[in-house]
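Entry:
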Amino acid sequence: MSWDLKEPVCLSQTRLMIASPEFVYDQLCYYGENVDRWSGKKDLENALLGRNDKLINLALAQHATEKEIIFELYNRASKTETVDKDYDLGIRVACLSNRHFDYFNWPKFDLNAIMSRGLTVESSALLTNPTAPDSLLESLFKKSDSFAQVDENNWMHMIMVSSKNERLNTDNSNMSDPDMGLWNIHKAIFHFLETAPVTSQSVHAASRLLYALEPKHCTWPDEISHVLERWRQAEVKNYKGEETEGWSTHLPLKEELACLMGALYGHRTTSQKDKPRLFGTANDNDIALRCAYYRCATLNEKEVIAGFAKDKDVFLFAALRNDGLYLNKKTRPLLENYISGTFRHEYKRRCEQLHKEYKWFDPRPTTETGRDVMEDLNTEQSQEITLLENINKQAAVLIDRMASYERRVYWAVLIIIAAIYFLRK
């Protein structure tokens, strides 16, 4: 049973105060997923807290909109003398996972205490919460504030975990204000690339983080050569003592990371007006800078063909992050002719991202080759596209019916006019 969130609070409260904890839990889950930031029901949440039921408290911890309630439940579960430690841990994780934190609703958790324990289920819950303050992720990437005390091993694990945070790719800009929080987060990520220790572990952490980023959100730096140079100095060996291979290309992992950095940060900041707009060119001796060009430039058909002929999988690695190649009806089929293996998944992911931004963009393959290659990944159409097609079909039927009705009405009017004319004679 869904919950009509517009019903009077007194009715919701009466109903939920006498309902079973299991029913209340389900209702609060629906409430938490559908109530907006301005429509929290404070009196109802406080009344349910008064029931002091373990299951209801768990639901409140995860879905309540009042910071006082979340903070109270968290503090209760943080007492050292508690008996049910597993339940208390669950409550704390639920509080830290609550999706209703924002600039006016952020309980002042003891971040120093949470982060001092390194990577735990609690710190993971907070680092993957997209509604946690932007300053939390900034501090993580800069290793400042509560993260300054974290040892390097735990810090790198935290960096990897943070790659799952939706906030990294969520732009909350509107017509009047840009999303400066997102801008600051991505500036901090580039700071991480400039300052983090270069080790085998950090190469894996940086790769995981950068793989998760949508290119359009990445900052435009003044320079990238120093970043490419420092990460290429890493020694990344596998258990056999051999250089670790890249995840997507034939290159060593550290070189693939350099190419990924080139692709994501290939745009030069607009403040550098006396320098080229892009860092690389198609003929650059540095393959990472060629990747910057493949991702950031407006490529025509000839350039796509030449780029693939020259760099094969590395070209695809960068080009699949170039939005313009998908939006151009002439270059998109070329991508579908080239993709195979793991690149199919990247192509599908990027198409889905573009479809969210441009509803008119069809994420399905446009060529026979593309459909064959992607067949096992596209066994079912997205519900949204299927629904749209059904609506279009129904609309076409309605249009035909309306046209038929119009013709009938037209002839009926003519017959009536003719009948009146003859009767009058």
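The chain is about 60% helix and 0% strand.
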